Amino acid sequence: MTGFASSFALVIAGLTAVGASDAQAASGLVALCIATGVTCIVLPMLLRIPVSFAWSTPGAALLVSAAATTQQFGAAVGAFLVCGALIVVAGLWPTFGRLITSIPKPIASAMLAGILFPICIAPVTAAVEQPAIAIPMVLVWLLLARLAPRWAVPAAMAVAVIGIAILAGPSVIESSAVLPALEFVPPVFDPAVIVGLGLPLFVVTMAGQNVPGFAVMSTFGYETPPRPVLVASGVGTLGSALFGGHAINLAAITAAIMAGPEASPDPERRWRATVSAGVSYLVLGVGAGFAAAIVHASPPIIITAVAGLALLGALVTSVTGALEEPASRIPAISTFLVTASGIAVVGLGSAFWGLVVGGLMLAWLRVRTPTR
Q: How far apart are CA 28 and CA 235, in angstroms?
């Protein structure tokens, strides 16, 4: 629910911006749900680790800003296919795979903390902006966090859905009656669109999602093999592109829910949470109309607040990991601040720049430290 609800509207807007009709945009959303669901089921069952996938949110934001690149959706689909092929190539290139998975733990933890921080303060903001829904939601979460911790977040989500349905009325159900269907989109390989859209989509997907995704997994102590993960996400991107989906990749924020201790006290059993998330993505794809109606009817801060409640444990873990080594605290806190700032430079988000700043500071301070 967190992965779907937090950004599906951005996906629809991005696909529409590059020429998709309403039916094609809906098809793209369903295709992304299917590709994400299948990879979330198959890979964790094979690897026995909670590796999870999501659609490329930075990529969707890129599409919104790329409206001038093309208004022919077939050309955009051709660019999506090129992006998927490049992700597969990255997975088959071991040197590149090792490079993106060798991030020091304090920097990786600080980057994750910076990603989570703005989301985790959303329940506070929601309690002020939307008290009728947010306060009962937080109270239910607080009660079950003590009595039945595993059910605290689902119960909070249920309270939010009930509140949204009461405020919106029966129109929520009526607007979800028509389910979207997959629609094949013949690709057109336009060199200008490939350079102007396909290559940037690959860069922001790798730098903005796959790198943080590997970092999140390392934060929770999992060694994630790059080759099968990147190849699977590249193949998933290729498959979804033919029906209008732009790209899938490693999850970062939702990965923190499934790889963290809330999923299971036993790290070796947490992969089951990822499988159940994959099944949920398939269900959401089939019932995307209802999910879209609920989220459209909801104040955006409520959906973010539910995610914030789910991620409090992950925030504690990442802050602890970032600051446990005294020699790395300044680079780590710098990474946190840059990531939490939400900046975007040359199309790359704050998570990428947080890693860059933290890595440079770590290297600089280590060089300046005298040997004793």
A: 15
Q: What are the 10-residue block averages of pLDDT along the chain, 372 residues in total? A: 74 86 86 95 93 88 78 93 93 75 79 84 92 93 87 84 79 57 91 85 82 85 89 96 94 83 86 93 79 69 82 84 89 92 73 86 74 49
DSSP one-letter code for 55: E
Q: What is the pTM of this model?
A: 0.72
Q: How far apart are CA 355 and CA 37, in angstroms?
A: 29
Looking up tokens 């970092």, which residue turns up? 215
User: Which pairs with CB-CB distance under 8 Å and at least 24 residues apart come from 102-106?
Assistant: 103/211, 103/214, 103/215, 103/218, 103/355, 103/359, 104/328, 104/359, 104/362, 105/218, 105/219, 105/321, 106/321, 106/322, 106/323, 106/324, 106/325, 106/328, 106/329, 106/331, 106/332, 106/358, 106/362
